[in-house]
Amino acid sequence: AALLTLTRKRGAATYAQTLQNIPETQVTTLENGLRVASEESNQPTCTVGLWIEAGSRYEDAKTNGAAFFMEHMAFKGTKKRPGSAFEKEVESLGAHLNGYTSREQTAFYIKALSKDMPKVVELLSDLVQNCALEDSQIEKERGVILQELKEMDSNLTDVTFDYLHATAYQGTALAHTVEGTTENIKKLTRADLTSYVDTHFKAPRMVLAAAGGISHRELVDAAKQHFTGAPFAYKGDSVPALPPCRFTGSEIRARDDALPLAHIALAVEGPGWADPDNVVLNVANAIIGRYDRTFGGGKNQSSRLAALAVEHNLCHSFEPFNTSYSDTGLFGFHFVSDPLSIDDMMFCAQGEWMRLCTSTTESEVTRAKNYLRNAMVAQLDGTTRVCENIGSHLLHYGRRIPLEEWDARISAVDARMVRDVCSKYIYDKCPAIAAVGPIEQLLDYNRIRSSMYWIRL
């Protein structure tokens, strides 16, 4: 017993020490508005990346897909390094180059040896300010993207979430897909891509983030050398404002009885990134849990919805989500089921939502908080995850929130908070629904809406 107690105490102390001993995130803002942020460690490698406040939300109906197209073109050579010379130079360092585009941000990052950090900063600068955008490469990449769009149509989970955004934010830029439409990809020109870069790739909207065995002072010196040219210069001209959006309770149904499984997503409007309610909603999602038929555990899983799914064969998989944007979000769940199990699964899932609003227990909250702590500490694995954490935090919150602060926020959540916050966002709210596949059994919208509250005497 004494040994077990000692082990527990050592484990608790180790967790607390881990949170307290994370290196400080240093942030320097250059004269042109570029934020340079880093976390120094003793790693032999480093990840350096550029996070940009630009994505499909900043496009209109005619230019939707420009950010995604630009991400593809960024790796196809620069004015200094034409053709494949850019990729060859990255490979000569033994480095790994990657990037992604989302609805509100674009990122390019390189993982390399720590000693090559200055060179990596120069490569990133060249990538965003000197992209060649050669006509021949544009036409070649146009075909690649069109093929990608065809392949994406076969990923019904992604299709369902695109439909969910389309109905939840209809008439606004958040309804656009990240990849754009086939029609747009066929029409986008070099001038469209150049205009997008010139408008949005500005220093005040960028974060140069780094993690690993690097010096913050050297990172700042490299940034001053390579990120103060004309494309990044900030002369007081206005930065395009965030396009407004509005949430609409509505639905999109794409029925196709030839498909074997139905994909259903249901969501209410959630809070934006900086809203403290997000922590409570993440605890609520951890209570709901997630499930896939490939998981073990069966009916003994801690998630009540997962246990019901196993016992009654309700679905093949389900997962809750809390997707946040600058000023809004989507809080909901997605499940994949057989055609004749849709109604039962929807009934049980909405019942779990109502239970969160009315009768969440302290034991469930304790379990969920431990799950979140585990996921939080997992962010420390590798320089790339840390670098992305730094870049995204500075764009979303204006600072990097320490894990110790996150832990304090999680610890403060109790069952009453979960019930109150879930009632605020879920109870008697109009949801957005997206459904794809053999969905004949999916009830009428008004019936689903009526399950967003309980009649209690």
Automatic annotation (TrEMBL):
Give the record's GO CC terms.
Answer: mitochondrial inner membrane; protein-containing complex
Pfam family membership, one: Peptidase_M16_C
* A GO term for molecular function: metal ion binding
Keyword Transit peptide assigned to the entry: answer is yes
Note the topology in the membrane: Peripheral membrane protein
> Key word Transmembrane present in the record?
no
Q: Which InterPro entries does the entry mention?
A: Metalloenz_LuxS/M16, MPP/UQCRC_Complex, Pept_M16_N, Peptidase_M16_C
| Family, as annotated | Belongs to the peptidase M16 family. UQCRC1/QCR1 subfamily.
Full protein name = Cytochrome b-c1 complex subunit 1, mitochondrial
